[in-house]
Amino acid sequence: MAEAPAVDASPLIYLARTGNLPILKALAPVFLIPEPVRDEIRAKDDAVLRDVQAAPWLSVVPSPSIPETLLAWDLGKGEASVLAWALSRPGTIAVLDDQRGRSYAQWHGIPFIGTLGIILRAKRQGMIPLARPIVRDLIARGMYLSKAVADKALALVGE
């Protein structure tokens, strides 16, 4: 049985900045945050760190050892630790937005989802009435999504 999903910094940061951190629960009831991810959040945004620490369903775990094959991809410490965690626990979902990290996950058979996918899932599950305002807010807060990708994704949930 797979463990709780391992989540990278960007989904946590963007969802917390928009007041939508609980949307993660559309995927699972609990999440694991490798220590390097927590450290990245600490370095970027104290308010997000407080939100993450206040959520009892988010648990910080020690950083796993990073395999040489993963180090060769030259990813950030957070992405690498999320992928190493998932790689060492088959079936564990990696929650990350970084394209290179997602390519690694795909190449190595690691299931993954990003922030946009979480929002679409929340809409399908009825957790949120509309996805578009959240996507707009994420983009306004600095998350990069092309208009074409956002529109295509929103069309999947009838928006």
Describe the structure in brief:
The protein has one domain: Rossmann fold, CATH 3.40.50. 51% of the residues lie in helices and 9% in strands.
Number of strands: 5
Q: Helical amount among residues, as a percent range?
A: 40-55%
CATH homologous superfamily heading: 5'-nuclease
Tell the overall outline: globular
What fold name stands as the CATH topology? Rossmann fold
- Main sheet characteristics: 3 strands, parallel
The total number of structural domains is: 1
Show unreliable segments: none
- Average pLDDT for all residues: 94
The CATH class, by name, is Alpha Beta
Terminus-to-terminus distance: 35 Å
Please state how the strands of the largest beta sheet are arranged side by side.
1-4-5
Secondary-structure element pattern, one letter each: EHEHHEHHEHEHHH
Any idea what the CATH architecture is? Answer: 3-Layer(aba) Sandwich
Number of helices: 9
Radius of gyration: 15 Å
Strand content: 5-15%
Structural class: mainly alpha
Describe the structure.
- With 159 residues, this protein is mainly alpha-helical.
- It has helices spanning 9-17, 35-44, 46-54, 68-71, 77-88, 99-107, 115-124, 132-140, 147-155; strands spanning 6-7, 31-34, 58-61, 94-95, 112-113.
- α2 (35-44) packs antiparallel against α5 (77-88).
- The longest helix is centred in the middle third of the chain and has 12 residues, at 77-88.
- It is globular.
Helices, strands, pairings?
Elements: E1 6-7, H1 9-17, E2 31-34, H2 35-44, H3 46-54, E3 58-61, H4 68-71, H5 77-88, E4 94-95, H6 99-107, E5 112-113, H7 115-124, H8 132-140, H9 147-155
